[in-house]
Design goal:
Blueprint: H1 3-18, E1 40-42, E2 56-58, E3 100-101, E4 104-105, H2 112-119, E5 142-147, H3 163-171, H4 179-189, E6 194-197, H5 204-219, E7 240-243, H6 247-260, E8 268-271, H7 277-285, E9 290-293, H8 295-303, E10 314-317, H9 320-325, H10 329-338, E11 348-353, H11 358-367, E12 372-376, E13 386-392, H12 398-409, E14 413-417, H13 421-433, E15 438-441, H14 447-458, E16 464-467, E17 480-485, H15 492-499, E18 509-515, H16 523-532, H17 539-551, H18 562-565, H19 579-583, E19 593-598
Parallel strand pairs: 6-11, 6-12, 7-9, 7-10, 8-9, 10-11, 13-18, 14-16, 14-17, 15-16, 17-18
Antiparallel strand pairs: 1-2, 3-4, 5-12, 5-19
This protein binds one DNA strand through residues 245-247, 272-274, 277, 294-300, 322, 325-328, 331, 419-421, 442-444, 468-470, 472, 490.
Length: 617
Amino acid sequence: MADLPQKVSNLSINNKENGGDGGKSSYVPPHLRSRGKPSFERSTPKQEDKVTGGDFFRRAGRQTGNNGGFFGFSKERNGGTSANYNRGGSSNYKSSGNRWVNGKHIPGPKNAKLEAELFGVHEDPDYHSSGIKFDNYDDIPVDASGKDVPEPILDFSSPPLDELLMENIKLASFTKPTPVQKYSIPIVTKGRDLMACAQTGSGKTGGFLFPLFTELFRSGPSPVPEKAQSFYSRKGYPYALVLAPTRELATQIFEEARKFTYRSWVRPCVVYGGAPIGNQMREVDRGCDLLVATPGRLNDLLERGKVSLANIKYLVLDEADRMLDMGFEPQIRHIVEECDMPSVENRQTLMFSATFPVDIQHLARDFLDNYIFLSVGRVGSTSENITQRILYVDDMDKKSALLDLLSAEHKGLTLIFVETKRMADQLTDFLIMQNFKATAIHGDRTQAERERALSAFKANVADILVATAVAARGLDIPNVTHVINYDLPSDIDDYVHRIGRTGRAGNTGVATSFFNSNNQNIVKGLMEILNEANQEVPTFLSDLSRQNSRGGRTRGGGGFFNSRNNGSRDYRKHGGSGSFGSTRPRNTGTSNWGSIGGGFRNDNEKNGYGNSNASWW
DNA sequence: AAAAAAT
């Protein structure tokens, strides 16, 4: 290969470019690097490096996409050089690199202890790690639209997933794909961008991890701009980045990734705030092929130069609507648009969101290219194995009502939602005083406390968990028998997420909510949910709802489900705002537009769906 | 209005 001289000249050009400041020291402390436009980095040549004089390097990949630009020079791709791939300080890190030898994936040996840790031991053959009993999920309606939508798969082997991955999937007791996975796996495999309206519990994590790992297991590591590695400070070059709104959710995705990368060359990492950054940096050093992160901590690591996004093939935004609700948009845009992330065309982007409001549509327009829109029916609310009860309880009576409720039917795990962090603590103390085994999870507790609370709850050490919104969505806690909305949320979607924490795995669950005059705003949505799930509607609620509609506005648009649809359907096929085509001309073609629906219930009409909405679940 | 998230 004649790229060595090339290298040198590039280096010297770069050096000149950067040398405008003459002899004065241009050291930039790590945390200040990449502020401002010229993002140069100092990099100390490795000892064995024959190239001298090239101290400065442009951050790889910004304009040049996935190959790291002129620093994407590849060492010979042969014999025993596996450790040169994507490992900072090549000689120091070998363990997972050893699983990619001479262009082949060599799975590591089995490890009984690790296997038990990752997959656990389950006597129940129907046990499934995310609490889904698949047979009960077959009727979740899914609708896919966009250009050239791939046909959904029927099982994991139809276009086969990677062999090792299949073994791990079996270890995790997955038997067949969930409805989301049936659609998302071929979509991701085909390299398409995806916007999916789906909730946790639908199996969406596997929906993107499976095809992603299949591809990574097969293609192996790719070379990194080795010169960009400083000898002292190594850098992670993940191939896939998953952004999640909360630390718990990030951890959960990471744990799933650990299962499915067992014995493979791919090493997952997780970073989030509230935990010592040093440990996380060391983990990144040890190899970081898939990175799960909350936005704040990732930005921190990017600014410290510990992570480069130049090699990203896959970008996943999980719970995108929540991330925007939490004000993460600037940070997400910084990560995606202002660092060294490959451009839209040079990466594959998958967005998941429970709803599809206009700000998410804009994000989709900016981050996705010719995407497929997938909408997946709600898992929780449609399920009739959750008994929903609404009790009228004034605020001052809530404590005693709760005690009544608990003494009447507290068995298994009870999850209690409150609105404020203060109330979470106060109620937990109260319950402990009453000799209940209660613990709390909310944003003012330290990360360690949150983790302890969650694992105590999961392990039944504390069978009551009092939680704020931090636990409402996404958290996967199997076997919750009773969800109590001590305070009702103001957002009906939050309500659905909350009650969806129970009644999983085909078990029956109970959701009890304390309602009073402070909850007027949720009446309409609540009525719809209760009706949809064939639940009893208390008379005080139907009375209120009748009063509301008499006095107020009539419902616009006519559809029974409109207030909950949140525009979460593919606005592109409904004419939309027009902004779609105008900013991205390449997407304006309409020729191959199609829509594939699968698993639809047959009782659309009965459920109040007009024909106009028939393609939406 | 509250919660969450980088320190």
